[in-house]
Amino acid sequence: MPSPTRSGLAVSSSLTIPRAELTERFSRSSGPGGQGVNTTDSRVELSWDVGRSAVLSDVQRERILARTGHRLVDGVLTVTASEHREQRRNREAAAHRLAALVADAVAPPGPRRRATRRTRGSQERRLTAKKQRSTTKRLRSSRPPRDD
Known about the structure:
InterPro entries: Pep_chain_release_fac_I, Pep_chain_release_fac_I_sf
Organism: Isoptericola halotolerans
Number of strands: 7
Radius of gyration: 27 Å
Structural class: alpha+beta
Order of helices and strands: EEEEEHEEHH
Family: Belongs to the prokaryotic/mitochondrial release factor family.
Domain Prokaryotic-type class I peptide chain release factors: 14-140
Strand content: 15-25%
Mean pLDDT: 86
Region (Disordered): 22-43, 101-148
């Protein structure tokens, strides 16, 4: 499981994002918190500049850019966490979320699907169902049935 460490954010056994490359911003959360909700900056935004990261290989960078392109703003990947009352727990949640997102993006693609033929039984069931549906619709029609 991805986890934050002192030196950085461990994404996998071979990839750790250094703390120096991560940027944290804090703001007021809209979630639970009682009277402290309006005074405590418990919401966390964790950002990482994928384009300028020194720890990524070219292949890893291409995979991340391709798979998370819709989430990137100027090459920066940002995740937020505001589900907890405590800033510390939101920081941990954001770190886990970012690590999981990067781990999924860096993972190699799965095996390609092997094309297979439809079975004779499945083809026959499909044609039988089509004939039954056709008969039902023909019987509902106000026109007299045609003899084929």
